[in-house]
Amino acid sequence: MERNRHHIWWEHREYKRNHVLTALRSHRGFIIPARVIDHRDLHHNLNPGPPKPTREQAIELLDSLGEFQPMRGRLSAVFFAIEYFNEAAYQEGPTSRNAREIAQHLQTQVHFLSRPWETAQYECESQMDRS
Description:
Blueprint: E1 3-7, H1 12-15, H2 19-26, E2 31-35, H3 36-45, H4 55-65, H5 76-89, H6 96-113, H7 117-130
Antiparallel strand pairs: 1-2
Helix pairs in contact: 2-4, 5-6
């Protein structure tokens, strides 16, 4: 089973303009080992990437993550971010809509990154049959 790494926050060029967003994108909790087929399917179905968080949201999220422990599960930082942005979505203000859209996008990414092997294998074979 071929694997690579998925950055939860993409496109790369959108995040390298600001050092805080670069830190968010490169945080080890947001670089997820993924099966190649799942990674490819995710990008095929979820373009464009997630809305960019504000600088303030990125700082608060990074501070809240603190000393991230990947042993809690490879998607634990993503689940934490979903919860963070869901909470932010319910606070009145100019960024609540953006927060809701980020949470929804992250949740959809989780769907692709947590598919059982059998599902991915079936989808891969189905795609090969259509070729």
